Amino acid sequence: MDFREVAVTMDAVLAGFSIALQPWNLLFCLMGCLVGTLVGVLPGLGPVAAISILLPTTFKAGPIAGIIMLAGIYYGAMYGGSITSILVNLPGEAASVVTCIDGYQMARQGRAGPALGICAIGSFIGGTLSVLGLMLVAAPLADAALAFGPPEYFGLMTIGMVVVTFLAGKSMTKSLLMAAVGIFLGCVGMDVISAKPRFTLGLGFLEDGLGLVPVIMGLYGIAEVFSNLEDTLKVSILDTKIQGIWPTRDDFRRSMGPILRGTGLGFFTGVLPGGGAVLSSFLSYGMEKKLSREPQRFGSGAIEGVAGPETANNAATGGAFIPLFILGLPFNVVSAVLLGAMIIYGVRPGPMLLSTDPGLFWGVVASMYVGNAMLLVLNLPLVGLWVKMLKIPYPLFFPLIVLFCLIGVFSINHNINEIYVMLAFGVVGYLLRKFEYEAAPLILAMVLGPMYENALRQSLIMSDGSYGIFFSRPISATCLIFAALLLIIPHLRRVTLWRKKAIEFA
Amino acid sequence: MFLATRNQKSGFFWLASGVTISYVAVGYGLGTMREPGPGYLAFLTGLVISVLSLILILGDLRTRVREPLRELFRANSRRVVYTVLALVLYTVLLPYLGFVVCSVILLYGMIYFGGKPNHLVAGGVATGASVLTFYLFSRLLQVNLPVGVLGEWISGRLP
Q1: Are A340 and A217 in contact (CB under 8 A)?
Q2: Which of A46, A394, A496, B154 could form a disulfide with B150 if both were Cys (CB 3.0 to 4.6 A apart)?
Q3: φ, ψ at A391 (rounded to 5°)
Q4: For an interface test with A, which of B5, B10, B35, B41 has the most A Cβ atoms less than 10 Å from its Cβ?
Q5: What is the number of H-type helices and E-type strands within chain A?
Q6: Alpha-carbon gap, residue A81 to A39, rounded angstroms
Q7: Complex ipTM
């Protein structure tokens, strides 16, 4: 990056701040952060369901304010999840699972305050530095991505889906199956080349394809309610007074390394296909434990075990916006939902976004700085309020989720049929949980499905029907070989185990 | 035993689905390798689903574990069935009774049967939440929610 490019980027960043600091956008950023924190605090309802449920409320706001709010929900949830992990030993969302290990132990030792404090500080540092990374990487990557053709996109999408299936759930076969079902669901509707309706069952409203929002609300929102109707969740909040939120000098000394390492790790994990907040938090915890001179402290209230993962999961949210904004490809489920939202707003992310809609891109990026500062300033004094929210009885809370799902789905197209679609996918989601299937690969594949099909068909047309085109281009070849390795590795391990068993038997 | 485990039961369902998808996709036209047709990817996807479901079914062939459907669904599963029925009924009646009336009834039922609070709490929360969301969406967000039997009465009374 030469001096001129830096100056152009700085100009764009300042323009972004002028957009993000407009009162209307600030209001939506604040709402996103608050709702995101609430969603993170309340166990069960994750950012995916929350973004899709609240999507219709942003339609009147316009694309910039809408995306600012949805992004706020995403990174707000990362912070909110840590509150329940520390105080209740129950992760509000998946990325905070690791925080339970040492965070809850700290709370039991009367150090809930510093644990929450370091979460907020780490989240702020991780979040803001990752946004800085996003700013630096965006322009050069967008230039490089302009040279990408259908085979490169096909390779990138394949690796994205394979990594998500590799990481989701216990059974890779089931996750792959879900991804295949997702691609099929993406095929439902009018074929863009031949204009032929496919798999519509004669229903006119399906010709535009299955709506992403009804499917997500069904699989995540309604299915969650159904599951909770069976199991009553009992939340017991640790009876401890939260005082002295500011960490001690020793806490800072111990946490600075994990926070900086967590930022780097989280950012790069977020950029990677299939990576994201969950993976980064686990990797960060493992790395800190490995690097620590006293690994035995981990599990019994080590502040490093809270600082690293919480920083990493917030840094990953910034990283995840890179493929979404610059390549137009979502590499995790939350990004997939955000892409769906952008398409509804009429925004098409991709390499051209920076030149066609720079206000949107830089406005949203700048709002992330503002949002991270808001989270730091607002959330520490509001911890008591969030804890009180946890005491709302579930029988009062879940009907409201159902109501929001119903009204949310209806308000997108004013079409009652979409409520039926949501209910059908609610039942499907409930059954998937019963039979231990993960919904994440399905959602990601469904969003990528139409793009995947176009990339495949265009590539085959380009190559005169030869699949060799995917292996003659370095990017697609690397992606596909890596994807194949990921599919093979688990079986190799099994082969090794079988071999071991056979040798022992002999 | 065939279809003894949950993997086998679900695998059988996916096998049937995969075969159906591939069969229907052939009808849309597979095209040629040089110019793939509208059914090309769906056909391949159906094949992949079928192969993966066969792996699921065959993978558990030697297991002695039995997972009857009865064990997968607990006694409380009835609540799920009633809720699904209530939601379907809600959707059917929505254009006729309108958003507020349908939502009050649905929420009241879910709150009351979900946690057994007194009628006043259940009724109060149901009415308050329904009217508030109606106001939020119809007035502030300009969503045309069905007004149903309340017609202009409700619209005229909201600020």
Answers
A1: no
A2: B154
A3: -85, -5
A4: B41
A5: 22, 2
A6: 8
A7: 0.91
